[in-house]
């Protein structure tokens, strides 16, 4: 069974990583795997799209909305 972590928890670990903590130290202290934390960091890392800063999470949400719109 996989553990579901709250978005606030994920965001706090991403922030700690961005402040310099290693994935290994975060995994050891808080429990999620290094791979899980790395995915959260990747999802929260801004990318530039047509001059606008977006995260991978933002892009995925837009894609889902577009799919729903196109199916309607």
Provide structural commentary:
The chain is mainly alpha-helical and 72 residues long. Helix content is 65%, strand content 11%. It has four helices and two strands. The chain has helices spanning 7-18, 23-30, 34-44, 56-71; strands spanning 46-49, 52-55. A two-stranded antiparallel ribbon has the order 1-2. A hairpin with a 2-residue loop joins strand 1 (46-49) and strand 2 (52-55). Helix 2 packs across helix 3. The radius of gyration is 15 Å and the shape is flat.
What profile does the largest beta sheet have? 2 strands, antiparallel
* Poorly predicted ranges: none
Radius of gyration: 15 Å
Tell me roughly what share of residues is in helical segments.
Answer: 55-70%
Mean pLDDT: 90
InterPro entries: Homeodomain-like_sf, Transposase_8
Pfam families: HTH_Tnp_1
Organism: Leuconostoc falkenbergense
Protein name: Transposase
